[in-house]
Amino acid sequence: MSKSALLPLALALTLAGGAAAQAEGVKVTISCGSVGAEQAQCREGAKAWEAKTGNTVDIVAPPQSTSDQLALYQQILNAKSGDIDVFQIDVVWPGMLGSHFIDLKQYVDQATIDQHFPGIIKGLTRDGQLMALPWFTDAGLLYYRQDLLDKYQLKVPTTWEEMTADAKTIQEGERKAGNDRFFGFVFQGRAYEGLTCDALEWIVSFGGGDIVEADGKITVNNPQAAKALDLAASWIGTIAPDGVLNYMEEDARGVFQSGNAAFMRNWPYAYGLVNSGDSPVKGKVGTAALPKGDGDGARVAATLGGWNLAVSKYSAHPKEAADLAAFLTGKDEQKRRAITGAFQSTIPALYDDPDVLKAQPFFALLKTAFEGAVARPSAVTGERYNEVSTLFWNAVHNTLSKQGDGATNLAQLQKDLNRLSRGGRW
């Protein structure tokens, strides 16, 4: 399928940059994320590779929603289209898309691969083949307004119940002071993969399990998981706006960065943006590990995220595409992105780099978040993960929307997952 035929079918995909091909080189097309500074950072790295190699890069911007991205990528790859050479893929996608990607071990030496966290490399390896190179990693964080905590003589909350109470106190105070648009807490509440990430954190933090355990057993229907979802549902229309039910990452950041929220759940990328030169809350924001729930098994939990670069089997220039992927995920480029964009590196050595720590001192605080990181059940569910996640986020969204309580919706989810797995046999 040609580019002219394919792109109209994928209306969400738009060309975002790149020069015309130079006669002496080839043109490589990369799909970079659309959240925060991702496009600008990708473009800067691509320009450096162009200068080094004499090749050119076209950058395409996929939809912001990870769910829409996955659907679009599946369409492109199932068509065996070579329109995109390098794909930015979520950490949970290798099991679903890996058959369409080349083994990067053919083009990247082992020393380069060994720079990265072994656990991430393991997750990107399928049947001994390296499906993608790690670009940046993520874990959910709690963002808070330190100035408002000080104003109302509050400490950083360590439990969801404390956060709920503190958000209510600050919200009431700020509204009495004249800001009718102020809310206590914003997060990712739309029915998409981002809600799976948020809700998994709530459930695990309450000791409610991992949706599907490593042995394939479905455990999501339990009282602690229901309690977590019911607490989250109580936020809607009280400390969180009704509109949060359609929020993705950038929607939450927009409200928080404008000064209209006390707390926010988001990924590390938001730190550099909320503290940028023109940010209304610059210098007023702190970060911490997400709160924990209560009861037996309560713990700090942050969903593990992260994005990686994979090369399509249908690329006309696999060698150059692999070289671009290796360059963008390399130590020098990751250091630049960490310093200028606060992107969380996949290379352990950079966490001890004085230049990185000087520019992003909050990196030192992220260790706690990563210690509590939990993986989505993509490994055990394999090619069915997207269906699992869709069922999960719909059950959660129904609960948040007051269409049934946590217990009712999780009981139905358990039945749906049992049918999908044929009794736990994924």
UniProtKB/TrEMBL annotation:
SUPFAM superfamilies: Periplasmic binding protein-like II. Keywords: Signal, Transport. Its main location: periplasm. Pfam families: SBP_bac_1. The keyword Transport applies. It is found in: Periplasm. Residues 1-21 form the signal peptide. Belongs to the bacterial solute-binding protein 1 family. This is Trehalose/maltose transport system substrate-binding protein. It comes from Inquilinus ginsengisoli.
